Amino acid sequence: MAAYVIVDITVTGPAGYEEYKKMAAPAVAAHGGRYIVRGGAVEALEGDWSPKRLVVLEFEGVAQAKKWWTSEEYSAAKQLRHKYAVSNMIVVQGT
Question: I need a surface site. Which of 1, 20, 35, 42 has the fewest CB within 10 A?
Fold first, then answer.
């Protein structure tokens, strides 16, 4: 069953974040993930949630998503994200 990683990101260092994006994409692909949403215009339909940047990744399951998130391949990219952005991230199982 597919799983989705949803990330709400506020970029604090744009140049450094560009480096993160270059490193993150190969790590996602190496773990069978794919980008469903990577930035783009966000429009609130209900409530007060207004993310600055939204990313949605699809993996074959929750276990695979967690494997990517804790992987050595993603480790250096994750450090850059923590340095150049503030983010909230969840994983949700699809149907």
Answer: 1
- Give residue 60's domain range: 3-43+50-93
**Whole-angstrom distance, CA of residue 16 vs CA of residue 85:** 9
The per-residue pLDDT for 95 is 86
Kindly provide the b/e burial profile for residues 35-53, where b requires at least 16 CB atoms within 10 angstroms of the residue's own CB.
eeeeeeeeeeeeeeeeeeb
User: How many domains would you assign to the chain?
Assistant: 1
pLDDT digits (tens, 9 = 90+) for 5-18: 999 999 999 999 99
Query: pLDDT digit string (tens) for 44-72?
Result: 999 999 999 999 999 999 999 999 999 99
Strands lying side by side in the sheet with 85-93:
34-38, 53-59, 3-11, 85-93
Q: Which two tokens stand for residue 22?
A: 């270059």
- CATH number, position 66: 3.30.70.100
**Burial environment of residue 88 by CB neighbours within 10 A (0 to 12, 13 to 18, 19 or more):** exposed
